[in-house]
């Protein structure tokens, strides 16, 4: 996978995993890392799938309808990439906080849905429920911050609440933050994520 790595915390400190939205690239969310934790290592990845030239982390059949088979395959690919990258780049595999927006939040959610201990924490900006009707791994100890829009046309509020419920049922500790700016990633929610992370 194409990525940017910035070593700041060394092998024993935390690492922020940045996952862009549809049509984004690996440099898009770098400013967020500086706000959430300027002292953490940063691993920012580009999605491997192209939709009309726009990078994504997995295929979709139409807006809001995911290609489940591809989602499962790409989630495994990202999980294994993290295992290998931690060895190669020398960061602690157990201290990864994902920061994802939209499609990037959905693949981060999918890592949580499929793998125990893939992420220590996750900050999900405008996520959806990645898959319905599956048993989640034991997520005890995993901390999740969801920023959702009460008027988000792409990721409706009920979906954010369902995601919170499913992750909580899996044992995760989940905070849900509301905004009213549609599907936009706002500075206000980034600041709320930063204070959640700091605590
Ligand atoms: C997705 O496909 O992951 C969601 O519809 C959000 C997006 O368009 O990126």
From TrEMBL:
Molecular-function annotations in GO: hydrolase activity
Dienelactone hydrolase domain boundaries: 80-185
InterPro entries registered for this protein in UniProt: AB_hydrolase_fold, Dienelactn_hydro
Protein name (Swiss-Prot/TrEMBL): Phospholipase/carboxylesterase
Source species of the chain: Oceanobacillus sojae
